[in-house]
Amino acid sequence: MEILGIEDPAIWSVYLLCIISAFYAVYYGVKNWNKGEDRVFPEDVTWVKDEKKVENDL
Amino acid sequence: MNSIFILTIVAVVYLFIIAYLGYRGYKKTKTALDYLVAGRNVHPFVMAVSYGATFISTSAIIGFGGAAALFGMGLLWLTFLNIAVGILLSFIIFGKRTRKIGHNLDAHTFPELLGRRFKSTFIQGFGGIIIFVFMPIYTAAVLIGAGRFIETTFAGQINYNVAILIYILIVTGYVLAGGLKAVMYADAFQGVIMFLGMGVLLVFTYVKLGGVVAAHQALTNISHLVPDKLVAAGHMGWTSMPKLGSSLWWVLVSTIVMGVGIGVLTQPQLAVRFMTVKSNKELNRAVAIGGVFILCMTGVAFIVGSLSNVYFVNNPEYGKIALSAAGGNIDKIMPLYINSALPSWFVYVFMLTLLSAAMSTTSSQFHAMGTSIGRDFFEKVFFKGKHSKHTVLITRLGIVLGIISTVTLGYKLPGSVIAIATAIFFGLCANTFLPTYVGAMFFKGMTKAGAISSMLTGFFGTALWLLFVHKKEAAALGLCNLIFNKPTLGTFPWIVVDPIIVILPLAAIVAIVVSLFTKKLPSAHVKSCFEHI
Question: Could you tell me which of B146, B365, B449, B511 has the fewest CB atoms within 10 Å of its CB?
């Protein structure tokens, strides 16, 4: 069987798998677009302050 | 001189845009961090594309694109892993925990994350040293990719040595101008240029070769031109996988696909990016854009790299396969193809694509190198983790040393080295850090001794395997020959099997077994690591 002009199933299947996995990524992202909103906890703010210090030192 | 003049104009305009975006982002303090504190969301496109721009470099486009011209479309298995592991697994499973555990532990580098999670100075110091010493191999691969493109584009006007110098000056200027800061707009701008450049490259190539199916069939039809030496090693044409179990199959599957595909999880400059986002929502959204971005980067590079063989064979000027057309150096295949097959205006666009790809990656690599020696090694080991002005100085010195060792390697390393050098670094990171990283994120019962012994097994196991078994490196490094009077102690297939196949499972087993029999971490500490998850 030849798909997309390629005979080896290990190649045409991965060609399609790449596209399918990218589509899945889009599907996942869109499905969860508004999910996962977290509260900003004090440890998050401390982390940012320290990270800015690290960056500014450079 | 005309092309050099155009190059200068294009590069200067581009650098001005980058500088402006960096300045604007900095002035308005719209870095990722400010967004986080302000409680607003970073635009998911910006987060995903800046991550992608850091992930994908000239190494992927030039080095692995060239490897695809040699191995064929089997390299697409790496693209699949880039999306499945580098985006889906990495963002959805690892990213969310890395962000929260990193914040809980107030960790700012990858070794610091692991060190604090297991309450170990050794883990942080040892991790820092490994990154500082070995990352230049990868940085040099990125540099060589840029150097080969400039050299080919300006053949007869700029040689490779000068090309490397020009590029490193641009990157150093970028780093000095604040390129190490997480100024997202500059990264995202670079990512957009990469998107456009690679998109045009794919369309041009398929159109030039008569369409998708016709191009693939043409590639199948020239499989009789595969050199005898490669056929003997297992090559079965560019639209087929190499013969199962052959030496080429092992190199493709174990070193290139598995080594790089899995190794991405433990790239220090990528792991820390997860900490700069505000919530899981941003990571969810970034998955959508990241998946498409990676497909457009490595997917395009590997398809075009393979198809370049058809172009070179059909072009009377060459009349031979890509490897021969590029004089046997696979690192020159993509630059040669782009320069010969595509219109000259596109070559300049593509140069920006590569400059973007290389700059965003290199600056984050230098950042990781500097902090690994300054913060992770010196500050932790010598100053007991106390921040001092010495840390800043050593970090800066670390960046300078990193730049020097990168340039030295860029001059010294042989041809056809980009993909292999990248794979060695990715594999080394996976073998050394992955079991500990997985344990740190998901297994509360993993002990400090388990983590340390796993890291030591991973690092020294990889070193011994490369020095005494894996033939290519063992022969090149020469220690095996010096001691045992033969290039390798291994036999086929082990001499072509990448350490990731043997050492990574070994390091994982060591982590589990040692953790079962050693002292657990205080439960209060473990609880604080996993707070709010």
Answer: B449
B350, two tokens? 């593509």
Beta-carbon contacts of residue B93 (< 8 Å; ≥ 6 apart): none
Query: Rounded CA gap, B530 and B22, in Å?
Result: 35
Give residue B75's identity as a one-letter amino acid code: L
CA distance B276 to chain A (A): 8
What is the SS3 string spanning B88-113?
Answer: HHHHHHHHHHHHHHHHHCCCCCHHHH
| Tens digit of each residue's pLDDT (9 = 90 or more) over B283-330 | 898 899 899 999 999 999 999 999 999 999 999 999 999 999 999 999
| Distance, CA of B82 to CA of B294 (rounded, Å) | 7
Contact A37 B44 (CB under 8 A): no
DSSP annotation of A57: H
The letter for the amino acid at B469 is V
* Interchain CB distance below 8 Å, A29 and B294: no
Q: At what angle do helices B418-442 and B499-517 cross, to 10 degrees?
A: 20
d(CA B352, CA B53): 13
Spatial CA neighbour of B354 closest among B286, B308, B407, B301: B301
Instruction: State pTM to two decimals.
Output: 0.93
Spell out the alpha helix ranges (H) of B58-153.
Answer: 58, 65-71, 76-83, 96-104, 110-117, 121-153
- The Cα–Cα gap between B527 and B435 comes to 20
Tell me B394's DSSP state. Answer: H
